[in-house]
Amino acid sequence: MNKTNYTARPYIMKSGQIMIRVRWDKKKQEVGFCVGYSIDPAKWDNKKQLVKNNTTHKIKGKTIYATEINKMIRDYLAYIEEAFTECDLHSGFMTKEHLKEYVNSKTRINKLEVLIQDDEKMSLTEIFNEFIEKRPMEGSWSNNAKYKYQQMFHQLKSYDPKIELKTLTSEKMVKFSNWYIKNDYCNRTIVKQFKILKSFLRWALRNGHKIQPGVLDFKPRLKVIPRVVTFLKFKELMHFASFEFPADKEYLSVARDMFCFMAFTSLRYSDLAALKPVNIVDGRLEIITEKTDDKLFITLNEHAQKIIDKYSWYKGETVFPVPSNQKLNDALKEAARLAGLDREIVQVYFKGNTRHEDICKFWEQISCHDARRTFVCCSLALGIPASVVMSCTGHSDYESMKPYIEVADETQKMQMEKWNNHQYKQDIIESVDKMTTEQLKEVCKFINQKIKQII
Questions:
Q1: Which of 65-69, 153-157, 239-243 has the lowest mean pLDDT?
Q2: Start and end of every Phage integrase SAM-like domain (predicted)?
Q3: Looking at the DSSP assignment, which residues form a beta bridge with residue 29?
């Protein structure tokens, strides 16, 4: 049995929230568990990684003793150890999802026992506020993820200001879906918001709150057409990269360069803005992504290297003088318009049963994230294997790549062209095989002369 090396460290946050951080696979994998207590940081023993003995804690109006909190911490540590032991016995690799599922299932009973307020006393708003406080720490959320949940909850309260868990039934879910339609939301957005709502409700269920029957099984019966993946084709990208902007609009050149660097490397805006000289090692980028904490190694192609060389004059802490996300997106639209990126994009979507179709020019909707899509689609179109592309982007599975593969029409065009040129290549190969050494030298000499003429 191979034993997985891991560390599980209890610690206290500035807010007083007690957490347990688990790391394994040489610190590449990390999960945080919220123990469920917030205490006075002065009553925490950093050396023992436990609450100081013989202390009491006022938590939501109730007195909790140190022994009770420390028991919960030790229970978590025991369940974490059990999870790794079970995984080792079955010769498996511990994933974040498996560890969370195992520990949360084991601690569910304990959480029920220490639940300070039951469903009848806690309002839905209080439960959601607790969720917003604890869940981001459990899953290392970004501010954007937190905002999406807050937006969904605001919409739920707009639909019914008096909504509670006991009144949130499957019938209410249907009415909530109709509320979205009446308020002119497109079906794609409605489906996404219900996924976010059910994610919150599943967390509430795991933490001892009662969810009404049928609510978690509810799915809006709405027609949804996948959104068109927007990106620059290879010729468009190279045209944009070499386009000369007016001298008095230097900010457009900067915006274009930032976009193209992302398109040549697959970086997100957050990673571009944080990119430091130390991240460039032996002709490749070595970064830990801001969004997913993935460690990536991305070889720099000559186009990306040229942009780095172009900004060698910049002496800031980062590699590039990156504008804010909003300013960069605004400048990109102007730059793309001047560069003539006016290919039409057609987006088809439904609102309820009504079909809608929006047509716009590419420059009207271009944004930073189109650069990452451009990298994927152009790489696939150039024949780079999907596995290599995924190693650059950090995509974890083939399914997440499918939307890009399906729209990379240039890939199919280039591959099918092999039917046309295979016969000519085969004729050349057969002729070369029959040549003597002297004949091959003459052919090479002829080819080199032609290349010099072209250059």
A1: 65-69
A2: 123-209
A3: 24
Specify the CATH number for 234-411; select among 3.40.120.10, 1.10.443.10, 3.40.50.300, 3.40.1390.30.
1.10.443.10
pLDDT value of position 105: 82
What does R_g of the chain's alpha carbons equal in angstroms?
28
Contact residues for 309 (Cβ-Cβ < 8 A; gap 6+): none
- Using alpha carbons, select from 304, 308, 309, 270 the residue that is nearest to residue 287: 270
pLDDT at 428: 77
The residue ranges of every structural domain in the chain are 6-114, 124-206, 234-411, 419-454
Q: Among 212-216, 292-296, 360-364, whose mean pLDDT is lowest?
A: 292-296
Q: What is the distance between the alpha carbons of residues 72 and 115, in angstroms, rounded to a whole number?
A: 12
Answer yes or no: pTM beyond 0.85: no
Phi/psi at 443 (nearest 5 deg)?
-65, -45
